[in-house]
Amino acid sequence: MVARLPPLLEEAAASGQPYQWVLILGGINDVGCGRTGADVFGGLQQLYQLCKDHGASVHVQSSQGKQ
């Protein structure tokens, strides 16, 4: 996710229509692929900062894992 977001934000800004909101639905697949919680959290923090730097508000959502 971290590699894919910057080009999208840059393209939107260059078009004169920057994103006002970014919805981030992340983390569950990363954990399912064996990434540690610390790695996932670090990646999410990077995404949040990219959005903030772009001037967008962020809505974060995740799914509850199996109980």
Architecture overview:
- The protein is an alpha+beta fold.
- Helices cover 49% and strands 15% of the residues.
- It has helices spanning 5-14, 28-32, 37-54; strands at residues 21-25, 57-61.
- A two-stranded parallel sheet has the order 1-2.
- α1 runs parallel beside α3.
- It is elongated and about 45 Å long.
- It starts with a helix and ends in a 6-residue tail after the last strand.
Summarize the structure.
The chain is built from three helices and two strands, in the order αβααβ. 4% of the residues are buried. The protein has a two-stranded parallel sheet with strand order 1-2.
What attributes characterize this protein structure?
alpha+beta, two-stranded parallel ribbon, 49% helix
Number of strands: 2
Order of helices and strands: HEHHE
Q: For the terminal residues, how far apart are their CA atoms?
A: 26 Å
Percent range of helical residues? 40-55%
> Which regions are unreliable across 5 or more consecutive residues at pLDDT < 50?
none
Largest sheet: 2 strands, parallel
* Proportion of beta-strand residues: 5-15%
Radius of gyration (CA) equals 13 Å
Which structural category fits the helices and strands?
alpha+beta
What is the average per-residue confidence, as pLDDT, rounded to a whole number?
Answer: 89
Rough shape? elongated
Please count the helical segments.
3
What is the spatial order of strands in the main beta sheet?
1-2
